[in-house]
Amino acid sequence: RFKTVLDFNLSYDTYIDFEYFIDKNLYIEDHYKGPMSCLKILYYFLNVPNDTINTSESYTKNILKQFLVLEASTSEKISYHLIHANPSALFQNTTTLRIFMKTIIHFLLLSIIQHKCTTFNINLTVQECATTSNLINQLVPFVNTLRKHCNRCNTSIPFLSIADIAYLLVQNKTNQWTLAIDTNVYSKNQQLRLFESVKYGKNNPLVLSTKFPFHSEIQYSYPNLLKKSLITFMEHDIKPKIYLKDKNFVVDLSSISNPINTLSYNFIHVNLLNQYIDPSIFYNPPTNINIDRNLPKSKHFNTIENLSLSIPDMQMFLNFVENIITSESTHQGYVHSCIRGTYNKNLLFFNIAGNYRFCPKKNDHHKRNTVAIMVDTKNYIYCTRCKDIECNNTILSWKKIK
């Protein structure tokens, strides 16, 4: 039972912890599609464009020259560790890697939402696409349809379809929809299992995947494989480094001898990700939280996106909204973001997260779909807008603020 503890100050290889429970995802027949999709996605964003790769087989071969795939799957659970063992680029630290991975996920889910075909055609507002959790909620009713019918719906990533991306959405132990990519592994001081180690009380060591053989042309010894599996072991730290500057990803070439000035532009896919960064990622608000109604409201101000407490109406109506979403002990919510109307500046949109999902049409709480509370600061009225696609929200029921 050996683990490595992540040091915030070190450079890192890219890695993914991919897992889900089989009995909660019985509709997934091919358990290799999810990890293969992750490999294609990482290779695309971490390598210079290469127009000479024109077949799926050659693309996969190139991927497995770089990525070491370890597996600890059982009859109950699918579990893979994907490690950029022969990296084309490194990350400044785990925080940069965490934001990078969350931005990729946001980009992928948006790619699904924005694509249109004979079996999938929905229209969402910019606000409804603002966060990853919103996108997951919107996609839940269509997951199986996407997997089954969107195999020929291509994406900007070579040999990756919309159907392939849909395999990243899975159900957890409590049947809630989430991602098979565990983003918690990028936390500070997180412990990662080592090659051929096993969790306490278990009998599923982390071993080389036979389905995804690493660099098959080369025979690696055990010590070399162990080194390759260490995400902080850098024999020659002369790779481009991806870091954050002014909340944008930048490629640093200073560690490369005689760098070509234009090389960073060849990482064009990294640069394109900057337009998909969700600002709320930098505040890292909790995804599941129970708010004690007796706690001061200001406790959560620093996690609310686009909220300016210097503007009196935002401050005043925030208190009003929080009183609504914390009024039920069994359905506690919190304000995830606050946005002022683009055309009607008197409107404030409070996006609600947590367990408050009250739907006026249903007169009850939804299990998954989130809601927004809209406030008209001029007329002193408000309404709750459910984000469930099947709910008709074209006519809103406004109430007077007392």
Automatic annotation (TrEMBL):
GO molecular function: chromatin binding; DNA-directed DNA polymerase activity
Top EC category: transferase
Keywords: DNA-directed DNA polymerase, Nucleotidyltransferase, Transferase
Catalytic activity: DNA(n) + a 2'-deoxyribonucleoside 5'-triphosphate = DNA(n+1) + diphosphate; ssDNA + n NTP = ssDNA/pppN(pN)n-1 hybrid + (n-1) diphosphate
GO biological process, one term: replication fork processing
GO CC annotation: mitochondrial matrix; nucleus
Sequence similarity: Belongs to the eukaryotic-type primase small subunit family.
Protein name per Swiss-Prot or TrEMBL: DNA-directed primase/polymerase protein
